[in-house]
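Final report, Chapter 2: Outcomes

The project's central promise was a pipeline that accepts a single protein chain and returns its three-dimensional structure in a standardized token representation, suitable for archiving and comparison. That pipeline is now operational. To close this chapter, we reproduce one record exactly as it appears in the project archive, with the input sequence first and the structure output second.
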Amino acid sequence: MLKSVAQRADKQSKRRKDLDTYVGKPLSRNPLALATVYKDGLGRLWQNQTEAAESLARFGVQREHVNRALRVSALPADVLLLFTETGLIGRTARQLIRIERAIGREALEQRARAIAKEGKSWTEIVHLLDKKQPPAPQRGRTPQVDLPLVRARQFAEGVAANKWKTKTEAARQQGWGKGRLSVATALSTLPTVITELFDEKRFSHGNAETLMALVRTLGVSKVAQNAKALSEQPRRRSAAAILNYLAGGPADTDCTVKVNLVGDAVTFSFSFKAHATRRNLIDVDQLRALAISALANSVEIPR
């Protein structure tokens, strides 16, 4: 009896850990992550899409989200690779599924291979896949990009040229989302030792949100200290690897540290391959620093 109860508790605990790995951006709006969660839990945590939706309801997931996630995750790799920088949300998934239904999988794959994704927004990529001309920018507006470091520079250049004085004016004139512009401009307040670590053309909005969540939780001094240490070890790294190091995780694949900010809530998640771990994943001092920083909430992100 006691063994049975313990087994159920262990199973529930493992289930929570499996799901908590993906906490941060809502699963209902992150089809590729949702597809991964579903496949990981199939036959273990649920037997079908309906059961998965019921289990993931606390994340805002409905059955239609699960179904759409699985359909879009099955698209050709060349299609999905087009969205590695811009991200892929529910609306994008619906449009991709519609295009595949209209022209067929093979034609969609051929179109994807002919598209250069650099500097393009997800809207422009979808229009190209649909063989439609991207919407022409209104007179006086700059091309739309969803690269926060680029956007921050564009905003600063506009202020210097007296094109606008506030984020509200810039967002209205350029058609930029004010929320995303706020995240982008917040990057310009960070020490350059942090921002210079990243390639602006490969630094996504999701990367920016994670970086600002790190600053809010750990404090800018600690993140700058980690950045300086990393800058003294020059080599090519992905944005994810850099963020992992800034969060205090090891600069290898043993442990991945993710930090997500949703409103005022900051979530840390640690995932690792147990068989590959060669050191303590996180020490007591680091845990204490994280807890104190999170509770004190002493560093405010510019809005």
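Archive annotation: The chain is about 55% helix and 5% strand.
This record, like all others produced under the grant, will remain available to the consortium after the project formally closes.
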